Amino acid sequence: xAGVIQSPRHEVTEMGQEVTLRCKPISGHNxxxxxxxxxMRGLELLIYFNNNVxxxxxxxxxxxxxxxxxxxxxxxxKIQPSEPRDSAVYFCASSSDAIQETQxxxxxxxxxxx
Amino acid sequence: AQSVSQHNHHVILSEAAxxxxxxxxxxxxxxxxxxxxxxxxxxxxxxxKYFSGDPLVKGIKGFEAEFIKSxxxxxxxxxxxxxxxxxxxxxxxxxxxxxxxxxxxxxxRLQVQP
Lengths: 114, 114
What we know:
- By secondary structure, chain A is mainly β.
- Chain A has strands at about 5, 10-15, 20-25, 30-40, 40-50, 55, 65-70, 75-80, 90-95, 105, 110-114.
- The radius of gyration of chain A is 13 Å and the shape is globular.
- The termini of chain B are far apart.
- The interface between A and B is medium-sized, with 24 and 20 residues.
């Protein structure tokens, strides 16, 4: 299996621009998670989906952030408009409904907002 | 809300030294516990996990962790570290059987000197 795939791996943009991060979970996994990693706040959950339905979006910072999962094999995290404080590494992870479910992480997208 | 504490933020060891990284969580119910490792520039990889049964869990690369319920702890250990163990280590907790998201500790940066 190719694992969790994220694109782009690196993104540099200017403040005010729209940013779209993409994630393809492991085939057969039905839970998908978006995390953000910063030096100040560490790893924090933004949102997670189960069977394509958002279950918990309490970690989404503000209305500038939105996430969708139109089907079982694709999710997007959008920031509009982006701000310098959004600069971070954004990780996507997926897991199955197995009893001992484990989250598998993608390589992350390193976002820099100038 | 549950929290995860990793009290060692930065640990420096010489090769062949023994390692113990602390992890404490604050939740009195059923928990699943994980240790992830993040090598420089890479994504998070699962080292080991505890769901039930033997509280001493063995993971990859010679790592092990012990779940001590009375102390709410899940410390990571390795008898003899190698330079290649230089990485950041994250403890994570999944609470109960409902919510699937992980709560991460702040991480411990391990530097192994040759």
